[in-house]
Amino acid sequence: MQFAGYFLIVADIVRWARGEGIPVGPGRGSGAGSVVAWALTVTDLDPLRFGLLFERFLNPERVSMPDFDIDFCPERRDEVIDYVCRRYGKDRVAQIITFGKLQARAVLRDVGRVLGLGYGRVDRLCKLVPYNPANPVTLQQALDTEPRLAAERDNDSTIARLIEISLQLEGLYRHASTHAAGIVIGDRPLSELVPLYRDPRSEMPATQFSMKYAEMSGLVKFDLLGLKTLTVLDDASKILREAGVEIDLASVPLDDEATYEMLGRGTAMGVFQLESAGMRDALRSLKPDCIEDIIALVALYRPGPMDNIPRYIACKHGREKPDYLHPKLTGILKETFGVIIYQEQVMEIAKVLAGYSLGGADLLRRAMGKKIKAEMDAQRETFVKGALANDVSRADASRIFELVAKFAGYGFNKSHAAAYALVAYQTAYLKANHPVEFLAASMSLEINNIDRLELFRRELERLGIPLLPPDINASRATFSVEQLADGTKAIRYALGAIRNVGVQAMTALADERAGSGPYRDPFDFAGRIDPHQINRRQIENLAKAGAFDSLTSNRRQLADGAEVLLAFSGAAQLSRTQASLFDGADATLAPRPSLPEQEDWDLNERLAAEQEAVGFYLSAHPLDSYVDALKGLSVTPSAQVAQQLASGVTRFRLAGVVLSVRERGPGSRRYAFIQLSDPERQLRGGSLPRDLRRRTQRAGARQACTGDRAGPHGGRRRQALRPRLRRSRCEAFAKPDRPCGARARYGRA
């Protein structure tokens, strides 16, 4: 097939990355089915061990360009691309141009702006166009299916003109961009092969031909993708290495009992591909005990195939008998208990039952996926004829062809499922056997995502792993692991996870501490930092989060004295500069001013400031003060709402602290959005009547609140169960023993 050079280039890129310590994925896509790729260490999983097919990757009977997808740590992916440019020549490497098209909503907005229509008017119109990113709705389809949009057009000549122009422009190219992962490499300067385009956001040129035409010009695409999970695996391994534990993820046993027990309990928070609520439910029912179960679940958990998950589980546990369709197919379908899951199974069925070559079987699979009648009729005739020659009756052959054709439409690439299942298993193995290190690495990856950090905080609480507060003398810029006096491990909260401080600046603070010793007091801290790397807001938020508690217990004094500390920092730097000019002069002459005399915040103020700086309550929760007031009210913890909804309960009483209230809507229809927090999660996106804002202002910005919750509402596909507030009765507590009235109802987003 004359692709040896392509394989060797991919192998060279992967080998260099691994040599530089850049995490590389075990495989991705159909390329994982190549034994040659495995032998060249491009992939890490043995295709013979997992029953993967080379012909799914490259078909000798329909030769097309190979397409290896390689995952790298996203933080170091640019280094890989730089290497490719150096190795093969900057003038021979380019990105691939892509073109964004004017879709229904975008064309309405653009045309509306040119026509001078108000944003609100056009936005209201755009919201009448159904939003479906996976299968975008055209403007004409929206007009045909949405009566309100058609009525706007019919009743308003300006809107009619807007829509008329938009229909003519829809589908045209709007802007140029570049392929998210693909690059091309030429055997000569690319300017001799294709026209080039300079993307203002990148130093690398891009082809002016899109991928289809770039390939027709003789160029080959190399997909160098970023996968964040690889960063987690690598960071967890580094944390373990610091503690003297070496782990080779490529060699972890695939039969680890602790890993499968953990997955069987559904405790897969943070586990690649397996952490969604629906997937965790499937894991609890499946009780996986081998890597093949994980591969199957990765392939099945998609719209369409997921309808077969109950059957797969029932057959695995003996509650149903597998149907192998025909005795000759038992060997192919036994692994998946009679359920056709993989595209490779479709190919093997055609080979075993109807005598297809694997190359021909791949063509059959493609035809079934496209469902073109002429192709299907020709393939049906070939399939039945081959099956008859193999002692299969015409009736059985026709029946099996129709069944296989049905499954082929949404069959999954087993090579890709196996590769990603292996990554999923590796993350699960680390969580089951080294949970502290794994979760510290996971939290570092999500350092700027407050919602994810709060989820991880709850997971640590569930696992009994202490989360130590941020400390200027103990925390690193990222999350770290500490050994406690009793020999157990804890995770220290990252300085860089505090809002509006920045990982880079916090790295400088931690490096200074590591080089010159702990900070002794606030002015020692201020005197040693670079005033150009830190500002007032950063010091305020560090103080509010409690990062200076090891230096002084008065958080308010430090927060209010941030300007004083910064002024001292500047003076200290000036002293150091003068000392360097006058060799041997004392660099500590900067006089120490006094911090403002301030009484510290009370507990509720302290927690409110902490929540503002961290994004959630870390050291305690204000609702802890209301335990006695809430007794006897039958309050449901927010974390149990999903379970109760599933059991048919539709009304709940919740308790939380009001974080914010925003009013929306005109006149008598005015309403308010509320954000609540209880000790387990934040309740967001809900609406309340306008009187809540008046009551919350009267009682104070942060207060306890109880209320009835009615639900569920929202589509079946919304799995996350994010609580939404709707109109019903609410009791707001200005003080732990004094309720004041408000009204709310809680539903589901």
Automatic annotation (TrEMBL):
It is an enzyme of class 2 (transferase). It catalyses: DNA(n) + a 2'-deoxyribonucleoside 5'-triphosphate = DNA(n+1) + diphosphate. InterPro entries: DNA_pol3_alpha_NTPase_dom, DNA_pol3_alpha_thumb_dom, DNA_pol3_finger, DnaE2/DnaE/PolC, DNAPol_HHH. The keyword Mitochondrion does not apply. Keywords: DNA replication, DNA-directed DNA polymerase, Nucleotidyltransferase, Transferase. Residues 1-226 form the Bacterial DNA polymerase III alpha subunit NTPase domain. Residues 229-390 form the DNA polymerase III alpha subunit finger domain. Its EC number is 2.7.7.7. One of its GO terms (biological process) is DNA replication. This is DNA-directed DNA polymerase. It comes from Geodia barretti.
